[in-house]
Amino acid sequence: MVAKPIGPACNLDCEYCFYLEKQALFPAGGQYRMTDRALSAFITGYITSQPAPAVEFVWQGGEPTLLGIDFFKRVVELQKPFAKAKTITNSLQTNGTLISDEWCRFLKRHHFMVGISLDGRGQSTTATGRTARAGAPSSRRCAG
């Protein structure tokens, strides 16, 4: 199951992103963050509806790390009561710009599979239209 708990919100805001058009599905100026109540219902409902012994969650966005590490600590906490009866795995798709040492320790400790979306550097991203909607190449936000 792919979950987008932050909706289309992203810190890079690349103009080419396939998910930008989804902003039209949300109220203007609305909050995209999945509430704790919705998160709990989603996790419980999804796990209990699966007949298979393994259940996989894929967390995507927008940029899911905008939710903060505490959101994902809550995810693991909500999944824990089901861990004896099911094998539960989590994957996180991120642009990687907000990943800190704390995030790395958390993701490793809880065995998250992590995918990082990369655009490349400099002219290669500008030449292919990979710029933020503000006009600057998204690579500027990624260079460390």
Strand content: 5-15%
Total number of beta strands: 4
Share of helix among residues?
25-40%
Q: State the end-to-end CA separation.
A: 32 Å
- Structural class assignment: alpha/beta
Shape: globular
Number of helices: 5
Radius of gyration: 17 Å
Strand order of the largest sheet: 1-2-3-4
Biggest beta sheet attributes:
4 strands, parallel
Give the arrangement of secondary structure elements.
Layout: E1 2-3, H1 36-49, E2 54-59, H2 69-79, E3 87-94, H3 101-109, E4 113-116, H4 122-127, H5 139-142
Parallel strand pairs: 1-2, 2-3, 3-4
Helix pairs in contact: 1-2
Quickly describe the structure.
This protein is an alpha/beta fold. The protein has five helices and four strands, in the order βαβαβαβαα.
Give structural notes.
With 144 residues, the chain is of the alpha/beta class. 31% of the residues lie in helices and 14% in strands. It contains five helices and four strands. The protein has helices at residues 36-49, 69-79, 101-109, 122-127, 139-142; strands at 2-3, 54-59, 87-94, 113-116. Strands 1-2-3-4 form a four-stranded parallel β-sheet, with no helix packed on it. Helix 1 (36-49) runs parallel beside helix 2 (69-79). The radius of gyration is 17 Å and the shape is globular. It starts with a strand and ends with a helix.
Record keyword descriptors for this entry:
31% helix; 4-stranded parallel beta sheet; 4 strands; alpha/beta; 144 residues
